[in-house]
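The passage that follows is intended for readers who have already worked through the single-chain material. We present the inputs for a multi-component assembly, then the predicted structure in tokenized form, and finally a short commentary. You are encouraged to pause after the input and sketch how you expect the pieces to fit together before reading on.
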Amino acid sequence: MDLATALGLLVGIAVVVTLVFMGGDLRMFYDVHAIIVIFGGVLAATMIRFPFAGILHGLPMGMKFAFTVRSTHPRELIEELTQIAEVVRKNGPMALENVQVNDTFLAQGIRYVADGYDRDFIKDTMERDRDVFLLHLDEGQKIYRAMGDCAPAWGMVGTLIGMVQMFANMSDPSKLGPLMAIALLATLYGALIGNLICLPIADKLHVKLEEENVSRSLIIDGILLIRESKSPSLVKEMLIAYLPEQHRTELAEA
Amino acid sequence: MDLATALGLLVGIAVVVTLVFMGGDLRMFYDVHAIIVIFGGVLAATMIRFPFAGILHGLPMGMKFAFTVRSTHPRELIEELTQIAEVVRKNGPMALENVQVNDTFLAQGIRYVADGYDRDFIKDTMERDRDVFLLHLDEGQKIYRAMGDCAPAWGMVGTLIGMVQMFANMSDPSKLGPLMAIALLATLYGALIGNLICLPIADKLHVKLEEENVSRSLIIDGILLIRESKSPSLVKEMLIAYLPEQHRTELAEA
Amino acid sequence: MDLATALGLLVGIAVVVTLVFMGGDLRMFYDVHAIIVIFGGVLAATMIRFPFAGILHGLPMGMKFAFTVRSTHPRELIEELTQIAEVVRKNGPMALENVQVNDTFLAQGIRYVADGYDRDFIKDTMERDRDVFLLHLDEGQKIYRAMGDCAPAWGMVGTLIGMVQMFANMSDPSKLGPLMAIALLATLYGALIGNLICLPIADKLHVKLEEENVSRSLIIDGILLIRESKSPSLVKEMLIAYLPEQHRTELAEA
Amino acid sequence: MDLATALGLLVGIAVVVTLVFMGGDLRMFYDVHAIIVIFGGVLAATMIRFPFAGILHGLPMGMKFAFTVRSTHPRELIEELTQIAEVVRKNGPMALENVQVNDTFLAQGIRYVADGYDRDFIKDTMERDRDVFLLHLDEGQKIYRAMGDCAPAWGMVGTLIGMVQMFANMSDPSKLGPLMAIALLATLYGALIGNLICLPIADKLHVKLEEENVSRSLIIDGILLIRESKSPSLVKEMLIAYLPEQHRTELAEA
Amino acid sequence: MDLATALGLLVGIAVVVTLVFMGGDLRMFYDVHAIIVIFGGVLAATMIRFPFAGILHGLPMGMKFAFTVRSTHPRELIEELTQIAEVVRKNGPMALENVQVNDTFLAQGIRYVADGYDRDFIKDTMERDRDVFLLHLDEGQKIYRAMGDCAPAWGMVGTLIGMVQMFANMSDPSKLGPLMAIALLATLYGALIGNLICLPIADKLHVKLEEENVSRSLIIDGILLIRESKSPSLVKEMLIAYLPEQHRTELAEA
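Having made your guess, compare it with the prediction:
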């Protein structure tokens, strides 16, 4: 569970709810028009922008990855891969059948080594799987960003529709206030969807994409070294050398 | 038919119509001033921006491609090209006369091979046709983007004209509301033309452009390999190797 | 005459005039304050931004090129250059004295060849003339863009000045409407100057700049080939080969 | 102490406080709703955007570095390093034990030389420490920028919530003014947080990052030269040669 | 004196003053609150953004260079340098003592040659002086741009403070108008400072920076050639060859 994302969202909702209750009641802030125009409009523009398959993959995948955190960091992955190399060195690839790991991508690689697949097959299959995965995650990030960018515009559309109706009915001034309040709700919803949810999630997915790229490339490199029965110390040393600059300094820091 | 584009547009229109009817009647949202200023203004600015030929080609072509989807994906194209290579291997180029394909660009290439044109002619002609086609599609995308960018500005112009007239006639306050409502309609039209239609269509055309580039380049490569009577398995292997990274992973995923 | 630019501008003006007359009379939209602030302000900011010489060259030159269209397209230029090469081949450079062409830059090149100037002189002089010309056209484009960018800001300045005066005189509410109408006119003028005139003209000049660069480089290449008495077929072939990709496909398309 | 930052902030606060007192009293500008929505909202969006560790490191570090100034400039550092080289030349590395310097990073390097660590260890350790440090400072800069970018959006959210509540309660017009005043406070807070505090601090951190990179790289280069017992004049000459162009001119200027 | 800058500023001020007097009197547009918030706020944000030394150098230097024009253009500089080369050829470097030039940077170079300094010293010293000068001019440009970018934001802060005070005192509606007028003045001041003064000056400084770079590099090249007693015709030819493309065409054009 990515606590930062979850806590951030909770804090944001708490802030809005607090303000709402301090000034009156929740019903004042519920309006079916605004919900229709924001969710319907953002959905419509997103459907025109992206292919169907991309939306169906990207939306839930993005939501999932924004709220989960990798079970194993690069540093731990290097530890785990070194231990696995140790096992293979001592007991041969067969011994891998009993090794338990959290990371499903690493588990897949271990199974390939245990089953004795050749180097090229493992490399191609795992790199393809990593690329397909990153492609989808990136598409998810783009969809959240596009949604966050167009939500305020749809809020304005909703407010304009409400204001047109309000001004056209201006003969009864007593209704003006509540109608104006409702018209403003669409802008409020649009600003919240964009600034609290979609754009920050897109930014976080951008960070996760980078993380997953580093971790999965590390796993592929490690599995290939293990496949060739390199010594544990060599595996460790080479994996650290493969890491991009930034992650090496993070490792050093820990 | 590109269902995503069509459905997206339907959802967007449904959202707007629902909101309109929930708050009154449709006539409140129809104003000939707003229609003139948005459509006239966007047309005027687009005519100054682009050459005539480009607009006449680009507008309908963009609309067509935003709403249609390729009949054959890269994966199916490779299958089809492999089968054609099989036919040519077995029965010679003459046998191609009876082959039926959906894709017109592919059909054109098959006819060239059947008619026995030489390699250079086929390569030059097909590459030129692909480039002319992509050039026009790109111009269409740019026109939709420019229209989507200037629509809100013209909405503001319409609203300003309406407000000037409204304030100048302010002696009769009872008319103020309806006049204000009409003035806001231009902004509403501009926001809808931009955010619901033009900008999402420009984004989708950007995706289609990439798709068509990949598919047509694939067809050219395939036709040239078939022209040289390469074996079907070689054709398949080389076409997959020619594909850009991203499409190869999509292929693998299917 | 570039019909697209002229028609676009006419349509834009027609749109604004129609709206103005549908809602009242023209006088309502004429305000000397707004004219002073928009034209004066844009002039002031442009004078601070660019050197004098650039403004004096760039403004009229940009206006002229936005409204005129090249008499001869690359395709026709290649035809014309091929015919001239034919003449030189048959009757020698002297015969060029009687050749009539529309393009003044081409005419200048023909005169140089007829007068027997050497290759280096022709190349240097014509390339310098082309570069000076493109430099000025580019400066014109930049000036129109800068004017289009700052016009809305000056519209806001004018509206703010008007509103300050309006609010300061608020003791007489009956005057409020007309004063507000006048204040809004500056914003309207700024939006029209920017979105209808300056920015689209800057975009069109950007296209023209590219066109002139291609045409004049083509003429220089052609004149140099003719100077060396190359055969007409070689001149044609080499000129087509010199063309940038995009223009070659346009040629092929015709 | 970075006087510019501190004075700038003081001037900004003085400006706001002066205006507040000139027009009434401070209580008019204190509103708990606005504080909740700005601080809560910015906190929420920042938590979703960045990982926890980054926020905990980056926020205080950024604040500290924006308000402090390096005790020693490149010019003084070169002087200091030259003197240290002199000491080592004369009395050997042992003599370094008594050398006192202000800069902690330089002190660390001197201790390594005094303790006789080898060249590679010193280089790796110090470069890693510099990179980790710059990484955190850069993260701090990004966090302040993201906060400055989203503060105005949250101000708008707060104002929208206030306006909805105001319009919904419009039956009592006498309350309208104070409620509107409160609603506007969120926008005011957001604009001040963004334009007075977060964005200028992010810009200053960008400058500091560059400064620290130059100074710490200089220290590493100097320590390595001293480790190899180079002559003081050579140390000085090489360090000046290592400096980036801009800093060399600053040195020359002093 | 750079007439374009001075005239532009005069026209801009004339425009504003004309509008002010046409609608009432000047006092209506003078408000000490607005002056405090714009000048104080912009000063505060600039002090946080830039180091003190940079502001003290950059502000007056930028103002000076925006309003002055180089006494000698590249074309005239080449003429002058050719004449100086003539003098040195005929009478030796000593004769330079009596040569009078307007450009102080050129005068400095001539003195170095007359005093017989060696080539390397002249090159290093003059290049360093040029770089220090350009560094400061660039910093001036950045400061004016940053000020122009943040002035409208401070205008909004001032208007918000004014509006909060106005709405809080809404019990007396007769005061509403004048208070609103005063509140809008801050936005007006911010827009004028940004769009009339700071941003155009930053753009002009950008042009001047390029000009000074070309002229001073030309002077250094010329002085070094003269130091080596090259023939006047060679000096002229080489200096023209050193000029960047654009300036060569300007030279040719004159």
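Commentary: The two ends of chain D are 21 Å apart (CA to CA). The mean pLDDT of chain D is 86. How closely did your sketch match?
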